[in-house]
């Protein structure tokens, strides 16, 4: 229990952030673990990101979560980095401890939701990741470390996928393709959507054949009701298509652990969020 009368300050910085559920999640974690903290939203565009981060630290802030589009900038700003942030070259968690430390909890949060909460298997399976941006960066290392039979990254811009293949080559083999080149690839065991197209209500031209009845479809994005990718996956025939609410809560729990030294229980928070969002 934190005896200090003034709550320790945390926040999420991103662009945009106004629809974020992170204040609710960290508020529930704080209540559950008896921690005295506040959690705010800070909207900062790329030009004002560094000023926002340094200003928050100078004002006594203890830590920040970082979201789109600042995860790579957050990594570059830090003096010290955890191993996952270093591998990804991107950070979603900053801690002010005299300097700035960067961590990345997206990968572990993703893996935990997928394999522990949802029971999906990666080892020896055919896995496809759609997208090669900041979100893909965080999840490719744990996917590679889970030893899939095959890991394919499909992206609209092939050069970005090539960058990731080079970045992660020590961890394992990545095959890179365009969406059109997925035709003929057949159904995968696991398809993860890491594109941000859904944020604009779009579904890119993924060939329907990448999904079969047994394919587990996971959208890193979340929203009220079905996300565009989840709706697409169902139409394509997948019986299991889920959005990334569980990952959101799990990565938050890992950030909370880094900041507060205690890992909150995630299951009741995931249940509450699912109810709120009608999923
Ligand atoms: P994030 O950090 O959320 O991953 P990002 O770095 O902007 O965001 O990356 C967005 C990803 O979504 C990229 O893979 C992007 O494809 P490009 O690399 O070709 O830009 C993908 N994306 C976004 N909108 C898309 C669309 N309408 N169709 C296909 N891919 C899209």
Output the radius of gyration. Answer: 18 Å
The geometry reads as globular
Summing up helix and strand content along with how strands pair, one would put the structural category as alpha/beta
Biggest β-sheet strands, sense, barrel: 6 strands, mixed
Low-confidence stretches: none
**Mean of pLDDT:** 95
Q: Helix and strand string, N-terminal first?
A: EHEHEHEHEEHEHEHEEEHEHH
For the termini, the CA-CA separation is: 34 Å
Which strand-content bin applies to the residues?
15-25%
Adjacency order of strands in the biggest sheet = 2-1-3-5-6-4
State the share of residues found in helices, binned by percent.
25-40%
Number of helices: 10
Task: List each distinct ligand once.
Answer: 2'-monophosphoadenosine-5'-diphosphate
Q: How many E-type strands?
A: 12
Notable traits:
single chain; 279 residues; alpha/beta; 6-stranded mixed beta sheet; binds 2'-monophosphoadenosine-5'-diphosphate
Can you tell me about this structure?
This protein has 279 residues and is α/β, with parallel strands linked by helices. It has helices at 22-33, 49-58, 71-77, 83-88, 106-117, 134-145, 158-167, 228-235, 245-260, 267-277; strands spanning 8-14, 37-43, 63-66, 80-81, 93-96, 100-103, 126-130, 150-154, 175-177, 190-193, 216-219, 240-243. The strands form 2 sheets. Strands 2-1-3-5-6-4 form a 6-stranded mixed sheet, with helices on both faces. Strands 9-8-7-10-11-12 form a 6-stranded parallel sheet, with helices on both faces. β11 (216-219), α8 and β12 form a beta-alpha-beta unit. α1 (22-33) packs across α9 (245-260) and α5 (106-117) packs across α9. Bound molecules: 2'-monophosphoadenosine-5'-diphosphate (ATR). Residues 68-69, 131-136, 155-157, 160, 194-197, 202, 204 line the site of 2'-monophosphoadenosine-5'-diphosphate (ATR). Residues 68-69, 131-136, 155-157, 160, 194-197, 202, 204 line the site of 2'-monophosphoadenosine-5'-diphosphate.
């Amino acid at each position: 229990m934190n005896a200090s009368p003034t709550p320790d300050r945390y926040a999420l910085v991103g662009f945009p952030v106004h629809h974020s559920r992170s204040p609710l999640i960290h508020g529930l974690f704080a209540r559950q673990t008896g921690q005295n903290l506040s959690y705010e939203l800070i909207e900062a565009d790329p030009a004002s990101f560094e000023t926002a981060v340094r200003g928050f630290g100078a004002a006594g802030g203890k830590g920040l979560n970082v979201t789109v589009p600042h995860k790579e900038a957050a990594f570059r700003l830090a003096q010290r980095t955890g191993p996952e942030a270093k591998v990804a070259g991107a950070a979603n968690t900053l801690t002010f401890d005299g300097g700035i430390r960067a961590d990345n909890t997206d990968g572990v949060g993703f893996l935990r939701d997928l394999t522990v909460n949802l029971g999906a298997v990666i080892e020896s399976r055919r896995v496809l990741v759609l997208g090669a941006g900041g979100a893909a960066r965080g999840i490719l290392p744990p996917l590679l470390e889970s030893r899939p039979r095959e890991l394919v990254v499909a992206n609209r811009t092939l050069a970005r996928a090539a960058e990731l293949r080079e970045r992660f080559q020590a961890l394992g083999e990545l095959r890179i393709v365009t969406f059109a080149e997925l035709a003929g690839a057949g159904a995968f065991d696991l398809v993860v959507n890491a594109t941000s197209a859904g944020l604009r209500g779009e579904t890119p031209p993924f060939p329907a054949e990448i999904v079969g009845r047994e394919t587990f479809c996971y959208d890193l994005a979340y929203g009220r009701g079905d996300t565009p990718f989840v709706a697409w996956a169902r139409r394509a025939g997948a019986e299991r298509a889920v959005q990334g609410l569980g990952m959101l809560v799990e990565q938050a729990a890992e950030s909370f652990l880094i900041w507060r030294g205690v890992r909150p229980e995630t299951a009741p928070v995931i249940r509450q969020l699912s109810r709120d969002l009608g999923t």
